[in-house]
Amino acid sequence: MELLNVYQNNYLIVFVFLCLGVLLPVVALYLGKLLRPYKPSDAKYTTYESGIEPFHDSRVQFNVRYYIFALMFVIFDVETVFLYPWAVAYDKLGIFALVEMLIFVAMLLIGLVYAWKKKVLRWI
Amino acid sequence: MIEDLLQSSPGWANFGIFFLLAVVLLLVVLGFVTYGILAERKVMGFMQLRHGPNQVGGRWGLLQTVADVLKLLLKEDIIPKAVDRPLFILAPVIAFAPSFMVLATLPFTDKFQFADIGVGLLYYIAVSGLTVFGMLLGGWASNNKYALLGGMRAAAQMISYEIPLVMSVLGVILLSGSLNLNEIVARQEHGWFMFLQPIGFIVFFIASIAELNRTPFDLPESENELVAGFHVEYSGFRWAFFMLSEYVYLFGMSTLITVVFLGGWLAPFGLTFIPGAIWFALKFSVVVFVYIWLRSTLPRFRADRLMEFGWKVLLPIALANIFLTAILKTIFGA
């Protein structure tokens, strides 16, 4: 029972940190509202573009490279999800799990080499 | 006393006490940010053969950053017409909240620590990844071309360097057999992981600079091409929260490196008569100093080189390090 309490209390602390992390910006921005001046004028509310008049919407279509990097990220991040439990339990799993993990990573490395050869990893 | 508190059943009273203690930590961290920025400006000043702040608060400019914060608090809050208003207001909060949340599991000394959860290291890495949403949202909501490019760069860079960062600590986890930061420190009694895991340490350190968006990896906010990157349209205290989260991460990352690679509060060479808190502070300061040092030494990366370096150099090295560690551990025993 006490162990359960310790466990719950530790996660309560994490929750407290979340609350405080959200509260600080809210409180500080509210306090700032009471202190700061408010003198609106049209020129202040234009979008900054190094002095020229902004033309058309800025949400333009983006280069597909960002998308490919995001895909690569997903693949390797899932790989780390498998690697972490393996690393923690390595003492119990032993050499068999090591060989299995080597095969798993080798397959992903083939994917990386393929992307490399296809020049996906080049930015331009 | 704290033991009893941790073993009592959780409720509102516990919430209140933890809240007050966390406020104390928040004030400590804000103090660190204030004087960390001053230290950075001062050290960079000396490295570039100039004085740095020396007007407000005496010869050392001790009140310079305090004055800066007060000035920011009194600045007019400008939200341009073209922005997506709810997201624009939400973005700094999303960027800041995770940066404070990560501090929950970090042990500072054997007595001074908050949550002691089993997956501490994983928690840090997982939560610290959330900040990029704040940057991306801020850049997108601003409806400004510079901001959008900055936000996109931040996202591309953070996800590329997250992988080497996560994989380079796997060697440490293999050796210590735990994700709990207290146990990782306990395993460093007979040798810091910095020396047992030199490759992992170097990869982790490089990737951590990229995660912190500091020079030479500060492309998301490179001032001479993107003006200020994702926070071009932010002003006053909303802007301050982006900066604050950056420096709270500096605090968090320096603490994490101290704990995982430099033995935390453990004393080297058996010098145990000096308390652990002082050892921790010393190691922590050295890590912060190295970050500042690198900032004033190295020029900025080029965007294409940055991605290639992450995927073609750091990732294979980090993967090789994992298996090298595993094989060495099997051969020599742990």
Residues in β-strands, percent of chain A? under 5%
CATH topology of the largest domain in chain A: Methane Monooxygenase Hydroxylase, Chain G, domain 1
Report the average pLDDT across residues of chain B.
84
How many domain modules of chain A?
A: 2
Share of residues in strands of chain B: under 5%
Broad structural category of chain B? mainly alpha
Question: Which radius of gyration of chain B do the C-alpha atoms yield?
Answer: 21 Å
Report the CATH C-level class of the largest domain in chain A: Mainly Alpha
DSSP, total strands of chain B: 0
Model regions low in confidence, pLDDT < 50 over at least 5 residues of chain B: none
Which quaternary structure do these chains form? heterodimer
Mean pLDDT of chain A: 81
Give a quick rundown of the structure.
The complex is a heterodimer of chains A (124) and B (334). Chain A is built from 4 helices and no strands.
How would you sum up this structure, described in words?
The complex is a heterodimer of chains A (124) and B (334). The model of chain A has no long low-confidence stretch (mean pLDDT 81). The longest helix of chain A is centred in the first third of the chain and has 34 residues, at 2-35. In chain A, helix 2 runs antiparallel to helix 4. Chain A has 2 domains: 2-45; 64-117, Methane Monooxygenase Hydroxylase, Chain G, domain 1 (Up-down Bundle), CATH 1.20.58. Chain A is mainly α and 124 residues long. The termini of chain A are far apart. Chain A is built from 4 helices and no strands. Chain A is flat, with a radius of gyration of 26 Å. Chain B has 334 residues and is an all-alpha fold. In chain B, helix 4 packs antiparallel against helix 6. Chain B has 15 helices and no strands. In chain B, 68% of the residues lie in helices and 0% in strands. The mean pLDDT of chain B is 84. Chain B is globular, with a radius of gyration of 21 Å. Classes of the chains: A mainly alpha (124), B mainly alpha (334).
